[in-house]
Each structure stands twice: as C-alpha cells, then as structure tokens.
Amino acid sequence: MADPLAWEREWRQCLGSEQVPPHPSLLWGLTLPLLSWCASTLASAPGTRPLLIGLNGPVGAGKTTLGRQLERLAPGRGLRLAVASIDDAYLPWEQRLERLAGNPFGVSRVPPGSHDVALLLECLRRWRSGEPLQLPRFDKRLRGGEGDRAGWRRYEAVDVLVLEGWLVGCRALGETVLSRLIARPASAWASSLSAAELAWLPHWDRELQAYQALWEQLDGLWLLRPSRWSLPLRWRLQAEAHQRRSTGQALQAAEVAAIVRASLASLPPELYQEVLATGPGGAFSADALIRLDGRRRCVWSGPADEG
C-alpha cells in the first residue's frame, strides 16, 4: 500500500472505532515511519530473530490507541506485528502490595518494581527461540479498580513485538550518581519533589536495575514526548472523562493524579526520560523522537539526537 491516499483512507477507517482517536499527524509522524523502519530492518537481515521495539511515552499520551493502529496497518507493510503494554506484566495483586508498601504516592502499581520482569524475559526467550508468543494479561477492572492478572494472550505468528510503557528503556543511575543529583538545591529541579518522594528515589532506582536486562533485548527504542511534563495529567483526566461518558465507570480525579504523579516522581523526567534522547555523554540511545503538543498532535518527528 504505497499510495499515501490509501494510507489515509485506511487510517480514517481505523479511527472510527476509537473513543479518543489519535490525531492524523501521528500517521505520518509515528505509525508509518515505525512500520517502515521495522520492514526495512527485517528485509536487511532475512532469517534473523524477530524484532522487539520499545515505545516509551508518558501516561495519557495515547500509546494503547496508537498500538491498535499499528496492529491494523502493519499487514499493509507485510508485517506480522503485535503491541503489548509492559503493564500487562504487573506482578499479581498480593506481590504488588508487598513491593509497594508505604510508597509516597499511595498506589498499588506504576512505579519500578511493579512488574514481573523475570516472567516477561522468559516469555521473550521462548518467543525468540521459535515458540508462539505468549504474554500475561492485566485487567485494571479487577480488585476494585486496582487490577490483577487475568490469564494470557497467545500470538501464533509475530515478526515484530512493540513493547509500550512510560518507563520502557529508562536506565538506572546508580547510587553514586543519584546521591549527587539528589543533593542539588530544590530550585534546580524542573518540578519540585516532596521530602518523601526524594527519600524514595534511591529505592526506585534500585528497582529499575532489574529492568536493564529487558532493555538489552530491545532492537529499537522510539520516544513520545510531551511539549511540557504537565500535560500527562491533563491527558489522563481527559481519557477518564471519555471513559466515564461511554461506560459510566472511571477513576476519580484523585486516583488519576496519584497514578500520574507516581510516574513523574518515581523516575523524574529530567533524570530518566530526557536522557533517552541524548544518552550519557551525548550518545543517543533512542532511534526516533516524536514531540506532542497539548492536543496530542505530532509537532516534530525525526532522529532522537536531533530533537
């Protein structure tokens, strides 16, 4: 499907089934470039292992909806593509409560340590050894809205797996570096952290170390970035409002605020997110960067080290 108008028609057909459709600018800024990148990468090395691509974006950026569009349009590029959220690999309820006990956000999921990284690594190992891809499934409706494990998803044939999540690709800083950064005056922080949130940063950094083996499996990393980090809360509140109007069920504003805060204060963007575009010492670690304005429109798309 090389005709741009054909892509536009297919895109608009997909949009009709979404409650909060992505802006059409993302077709050209993210969806088609990512599909083309995957197709050319596979074509350049036929017979190699299937691809694992990371899609990092903040809470509320529309990653789930974009994932569905990628799955629907991938066959037009000859790709057997699946999209999964790292949050489907959340630990079971009881284990999450134990791991997150006493956290300053009062949440039972979201921060580093919430996920069963070992299980996800085993699922990927089996897939890349030739077995069908099987991944756990998480249902946010269970446990009174706190969520819990809810079976498995099985894919018979997958060439590309896109793993999306707000912390995908984030690197642990280590005790020495983090101690020096925490010692900075409050005025040096882009957004202020409470004393309790600062005290918990070393804990989250240690938890993040377990994810490094997972990031090492990535063949590519794509970044969705808000024009300002106050936008994820607005986006998530808008999504919950749509959910409430369509189903009558949604999180309360305070619950949404806690989830968003847990993502922004457990791994502050200036320490863990922004460096993904440039990397330590200026050596970028991501392949592409897509910047979004307040309406989640793509306002820039290109190589991460140019964004």
Please, could you describe this protein's structure?
The protein is α/β, with parallel strands linked by helices and 307 residues long. The protein contains 12 helices and 8 strands. A hairpin with a 5-residue loop joins β7 and β8 (298-303). α2 (25-44) crosses α3, α6 (175-182) runs antiparallel to α7 (195-209) and α9 packs antiparallel against α10. The chain is globular and about 50 Å long.
Observed structural traits:
42% helix, 12 helices, alpha/beta, two-stranded antiparallel ribbon, 307 residues
Q: Briefly, what is this?
A:
By secondary structure, this protein is an alpha/beta fold.
The helix/strand order is HHEHEHHEEEHHHEHHHHEE
Structural class: alpha/beta
Q: Nearest-angstrom radius of gyration?
A: 19 Å
- Percent range of helical residues: 40-55%
